[in-house]
Amino acid sequence: MRQVALGNSGISCGALGLGCMGMSEFYGPPQDEAVSQATLKRALELGVTLFDTSDMYGRGHNEELIGRFARGKRDRLVIASKFGVVRDPDGPSGSLHDRELDNSRDYMRRTLEGSLRRLGTDVVDLYYVHRMDARRPIEDTVGDLAELVQEGKIRAIGLSEVGPEILRRAASVHPIAALQSEYSLFHRDVEAEVLPTCRELGITFVPYSPLGRGFLTGAITSAASLDANDLRQNAPRFQGENMDRNLALLEQVKVIAAAKNCTLGQVALAWLFAQGDDIVPIPGTKRVKYLEENVGAVGIHLTPEEAGSISAILSPENIAGSREWKAPEAAPR
Ligand SMILES: NC(=O)c1ccc[n+]([C@@H]2O[C@H](COP(=O)([O-])OP(=O)(O)OC[C@H]3O[C@@H](n4cnc5c(N)ncnc54)[C@H](OP(=O)(O)O)[C@@H]3O)[C@@H](O)[C@H]2O)c1
After folding, report:
1. Ligand 1 centroid, distance to 182 Cα (angstroms)
2. Is the CB of 214 under 6 A from ligand 1?
């Protein structure tokens, strides 16, 4: 698989990563361990090397899963984890009611030790601030992360869902290897300012939810078909009339997909690749079949005309329903 550098950290990874969150939580019950392990194994066989997790996915379950997978092959993996979103350790699975933000030095150091133990490693390759805690200047947070780089506990620093100003301030303290924010045909806010700033600062862009939380694959046709504790039950774009209108847009994209002999999900990923070769999408899946399909997107080239037509069909004006999730649950991070 084509390799992409993560900023100037010296770390490279396959152009497509794997989002592991759904194996533990948020999109239905945790996946069976054997199925998750088979998916992780197949990913590595196919050249996927960036595995994306967080201390909060499944409250440690997701890191433990990756830790078991990494045994005996740690040096072939690029493990990305995150800190900063704190949950009640005894809270219910699949819920984000009990979420708080904490970017403090103490919390960062304590939670990193937990991540290292669960991942069964002595270094996290890419360590993200999962969400910036507005109570703490980003310069201070990045300064503390830079110390962890010096100590050899993390290899590179990432941020998630921050804007251009924070990126600049952060990068003035220590190089930032990657920014992970939501980006797909379903959500394109980063195009105006964030992506250009990443390019100017040499920060690799990692789109999360690159399949529009599964919508862009066409596999989800009603919120009612989702598991009872699937958080997408609360996503406006997946509801009633909005869903019907959005599915009608996908029907138009299907014509382009059919002409390219590929699937809707592959078109969504190929469209991201068409936005630049410094972009590493991390589609989430818990099954081998979807993983193989997603990896197939790496070889699909959309012409500027094809990418433009798809952009026009799924333009922000055409998509029905806001990105914001209905209370009481906010979108999984
Ligand atoms: N930094 C942040 O704040 C943040 C926020 C959200 C997510 N993330 C990261 O980004 C990763 C990806 O995002 P995401 O999981 O929210 O959304 P996504 O990748 O856009 O979509 C995942 C959904 O698409 C389905 N899917 C995947 N490939 C498919 C295919 N080929 N055909 C049909 N359906 C397919 C998955 O199904 P199955 O699960 O059933 O396989 C899952 O329901 C996460 O795993 C997580 O690591 C980060």
Report:
1. 11
2. yes
Q: What is the mean pLDDT of residues 122-128?
A: 98
Q: Which residue has the tokens 């084509």?
A: 2
- pLDDT at residue 331, rounded to an integer: 65
Q: Is the CB of 285 under 6 A from ligand 1?
A: yes
Q: Is the CB of residue 194 less than 8 Å from the CB of residue 167? A: yes
Q: Determine the residue of 205, 287, 290 to mutate for testing ligand 1's pocket, defined as the one with the most ligand atoms within 8 A of the Cβ atom.
A: 290
Residue 333 Cα, ligand 1 centroid: separation in angstroms? 11
Give the number of the atom of ligand 1 that is nearest the alpha carbon of residue 232. Answer: 43
Mean pLDDT value across residues 264-284: 97
CB burial string 205-216: b at 16+ within 10 A, e below: bbbbbbbbbbbb
Handedness of CA 143, 148, 152, 154 (dihedral sign): negative
Q: Is the pLDDT of residue 324 over 80?
A: no
pTM above threshold 0.85: yes
* Cα 136 to ligand 1 centre (Å): 30
Fold topology of 3-214+275-300 = TIM Barrel (3.20.20)
Q: Where are the domains of the chain?
A: 3-214+275-300
Please give the average per-residue pLDDT across 44-50, as a whole number: 98
Quick check: 213 and 246 in contact, CB under 8 A?
A: no
Closest of 89, 67, 136 to residue 108, by C-alpha: 136
Residue nearest to atom 43 of ligand 1 (CA): 214
Going by the DSSP 8-state scheme, the letter that residue 179 receives in this structure is E
The catalytic site residues sit at 57
- Is the distance from the beta carbon of residue 286 to the nearest atom of ligand 1 less than 6 Å? yes
